[in-house]
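Exercise 7. Given the components listed, write out the predicted structure of the assembled complex. Treat all entries as one system.
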Amino acid sequence: MEQPKLQIIGILHGDIHSREDAPKNFDESERVGTLEIYPEYQEGLEGIVAGQTIVVLFWLHKSTRNNLQVYPRGNRSRGLRGVFATRSPVRPNPIAVSELKVQAIRANRLEVSGLDILDGTPIIDIKKKISR
Amino acid sequence: MEQPKLQIIGILHGDIHSREDAPKNFDESERVGTLEIYPEYQEGLEGIVAGQTIVVLFWLHKSTRNNLQVYPRGNRSRGLRGVFATRSPVRPNPIAVSELKVQAIRANRLEVSGLDILDGTPIIDIKKKISR
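Answer.
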């Protein structure tokens, strides 16, 4: 099978500019920002409402892709872990899955809270949240 | 930005062979199957344990990518929805995010339950589950 190619559907505008400044994960964050969805994909937003929690997939374009093991952040003494046992941005396909709260919607722009993602990161998907 | 290319890290072996036979979502499924991770990525599994819930990203290679609105499954009377407000497999980047329970691990094969995904679907990522 050929390598599938992703379409970038939008871009994140936020105030996190370095990994050091990023919350470790969305569940520890109250940071706010805006998901700008490109006009050609705007029709796909129909039905999303303010107050809802959405699942957003980002393409972490600054991450490295060729490490299969990493040290847990801030704690090297716990030893190396396989990237698939972690939420590290380092992984063969650097996709982040964030659960974000929609604060407001203006046409193709969604204001969200709970961000743990760098300003300028490409967006590749949005889904309704479900959980087990 | 160029279109990012995905690496396929493995393949799902299961007993769901048609969309009609698939549970609507992982939260309604007890179906079991095996995640076969290709040997060159096996090192990345280190640290995953039986009993754990993992987040698995699949590339839905049979989905169409050029619809931005869909009817809710089994209920056309509710009208069209934007794909980003749904969990439909139809979307610009047909990536599924499933929460699966690890039943057993044998080298590069993870037996899991909770599947809502077709047999033969490519795997693109595995993550530790966190939630808000």
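Discussion: The mean pLDDT of chain B is 93. Residues 36 and 109 of chain B are 5 Å apart (CA to CA).
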